[in-house]
Specification:
Blueprint lengths: L3 H24 L8 H4 L1 H5 L7 H13 L1
Length: 66
């Protein structure tokens, strides 16, 4: 049996691993502060119901540009 905390942690770890792999594959390096996906990486780990309007706008901008 898996408790909710560890289930969410496993999901967040998977999202982080995919984000890191994609940056390495596309840019040939680790993420940097100038990269929108790296600078806003915490937004990807937040619950959709906890994002403010500004957070949603930043997240949508990351998806459009990076």
């Amino acid at each position: 049996m898996v408790d909710p905390f560890h289930l969410v942690k496993l999901g967040n770890d998977a999202v982080t691993a995919v984000r890191q792999r994609l940056v390495r594959d596309h840019k040939g390096r680790r993420g940097r502060l100038i990269d929108p996906a790296w600078a806003n990486r915490r937004l990807l780990l937040r619950g959709a119901d906890t994002l403010s309007r500004g957070g949603w706008a930043r997240l949508e901008k990351v998806f459009r540009t990076d």
